[in-house]
Amino acid sequence: MCLNPLLHTLGNSLYGLRIRRHRRRTSIVAYANDVTIFITEPSDIPKLQEAIYCYEAASGVQVNYRISRAIALRSWDKSIEIMDIPYYDTVQILSFQIKSTVRESALASWTKTTAKNTVTGSRRLLSNANFGQEISFRP
What we know:
Blueprint: H1 4-13, E1 17-18, E2 25-26, E3 28-31, E4 34-37, H2 44-59, E5 70-71, E6 87-88, E7 91-93, E8 96-98, H3 102-128
Parallel strand pairs: 5-6
Antiparallel strand pairs: 1-2, 3-4, 7-8
Helix pairs in contact: 1-2
């Protein structure tokens, strides 16, 4: 399965979202066969539908809508339907929890990750410690 034509079409036609203060907008993120599409304008929905229908017709591949999810970022109106895909409060993309705001997403994803890494690092430090040996650092 080749996703490049679909990714290229969506990347060029959707408005996308701006991350931080970068001028460039992001409308799609893909990893293997997992695709995340950022719809930020209601006018993008017909563009998304058309791109998916064309891709499905050309490739014979079907989007699995049963496992598709939508999340309303910021003030997006949840009454706007996107191809009958249900809205969720949280969507997991790889190991990251995506919520409606950057702050909520950071707290959900990074707090858990940093706590896990802190515990793992402390365990490694303690297991590698040899209290009978002096460690010196030279500039």
